[in-house]
Specification:
The chain has about 150 residues and is an alpha+beta fold. Helices cover about 20% and strands about 25% of the residues. A hairpin with a 6-residue loop joins strand 2 and strand 3. The C terminus is likely disordered.
């Protein structure tokens, strides 16, 4: 099965993992957790247990502290969302991010084929850019790829 360009998501409910989801190798980091770095081997989608650090002085939610450094498959580039949507949503809404993550997975990054065109990007696509296939193709298509290449993204 050939991988297609796609999104990298995090969720807190295994029922939200699509059957066609592929595990991704990398390092899950969470500064507020007991184990601050968890190595993902790319053979499983999880689950991963995160516990608040005992040395943590506040009872604040640790979910906004999560980041993921992916090791994408060969010929793919990983582009994390910046700022982190978990951190951004927590800053805007407050409360417990785990409650929201239980109900809705969150996109934390993107996988794109071909590193040569992506090295010049300053930031990942915005939601409005993703909604426009022309903008998506203009900014992210591998050399020679046309709109048909991204048909599955509509």
């Amino acid at each position: 099965m050939e991988l297609q360009p796609g999104v990298v998501c995090i969720c807190a409910n295994s029922d939200q993992i699509p059957d066609e989801a592929c595990p991704l190798a990398g390092t899950l980091r969470c500064d507020g957790a007991e184990e601050t770095e968890i190595r993902m081997d790319g053979r499983s989608t999880g689950p991963v247990l995160l516990r608040p650090s005992r040395s943590r002085t506040t009872s604040c939610c640790i979910i906004p502290d999560i980041s993921f450094d992916a090791q994408p498959p060969q010929e793919y580039t990983y582009i994390p969302k910046d700022p982190s949507p978990l951190e951004e949503r927590h800053r805007e809404l407050g409360g417990c991010e785990l409650q929201r993550l239980m109900h809705c997975p969150t996109v934390i990054g993107f996988l794109h084929r071909g590193a040569s065109n992506l090295g010049m990007l300053a930031s990942p696509p915005s939601p409005s850019q993703l909604a426009s296939s022309e903008m998506y193709v203009d900014r992210f298509s591998p050399a020679g790829a046309g709109p048909d290449h991204y048909q599955n993204l509509h």
